[in-house]
Amino acid sequence: MPSFRSIILHPKNIFILLALLTIALGGLMPPAFVERFYSRGLVTGVQWMFKVLDSWLPFAGVYLLLVGLLAWMWRGRNRFFKSMRWVFWQGEGPFTGGWASLGRKLGRAAHSLLAFLAVVVILFQWLWGFNYGRVPLERQMGIEPRPLTVDELRDELLRATTDAVSFRRGLAEGPDSVIAEQKIVPSVEALMRQSLKSVLKQYHYPRPTDVRGRTVLPKGILLRFSTAGVYLPFTGEGHVDAGLHHLQLPYVLAHEMGHAYGHGDEGTCNSLAYLACIQSGDPYIVYIGHLYYWRYVASQYLAMAPDHYEQYRKALPAGLRADVRAINAEMEKYPDIMPKLRDAAYNTYLHSQGISEGMKNYDRVVMLVAAWRRGGVLGN
What we know:
It is built from 15 helices and three strands. By secondary structure, the chain is mostly helical. Helix 8 packs across helix 9, helix 9 (249-260) crosses helix 10 and helix 10 (266-278) crosses helix 15 (364-375). The longest helix has 30 residues, at 98-127. The chain is globular. The mean pLDDT is 86.
């Protein structure tokens, strides 16, 4: 029988123990410590590491990661079925001790899987995950966001509508047509990264290197899980679905690159993306920023005052309604796969990272923008 010491020092158990300690550490570190030593320290080094490792790749590093994962799973599959053949077909059947042997092999397989998940947790947290515990954006900016009342939300919707309509009119499109895709700049990733870095500089956040925002194929691979984009700490890159409408792409790129620069909070990354769009200097992208924000405000107002919102929407300018319909039509090409399971899983994940409001965290952009207006720190 193995000794207690040998059990503790088993490599797989060491990884499991380190994962548990990592999770505990995440709950113990105060925000100021995370901000100074992790988000503004270790994470900047991680960004440089990924710059060296994958910036030269002509495609998203996630494809290499996926190939490696599939190879590991295939190797595990072969070993598993080899063990099963030995148990059932080489003289040790269920009535001659085979079940006990099978149990041991299944136990070892489960142990290996648990150790693998432990390594994933360790890498995730140390490469990026502790960013969820950093000092909130609003404290860095000196503002105090709060939930809006129905009346305040209606005023915000009117203001957001005025902004969106005004900037759309400056694009010289027909009043009933969708903004043309040709208006997007060819180097949209570079433009959004530069604008995002400018925003981060305004609020004294580090931006040590150029992070990547990659488009991933096939179309709908993320959208079918109600996800427009995703950041992977294991590659250091943000990813956006190739099936996005062109009126979504710049904003989502900036959002995912906001994650890559060390911000975990979804509302924070939405806010950074909004600022990056409206301060980009490109009229097309400025409009996209206002349009995306309008959609967040409209969604919240619809939930609070559905009857009034429906009447209000019918009176919107035809061009704005055309753009919204075009986005919705594109998204309908990729219906959700198990949306309830996805929402439950992501809510659980966000709660585990200290985001108490779960997926509603995305909507914090409305509170933050309203607070910026009250504080006089938001400029177009």
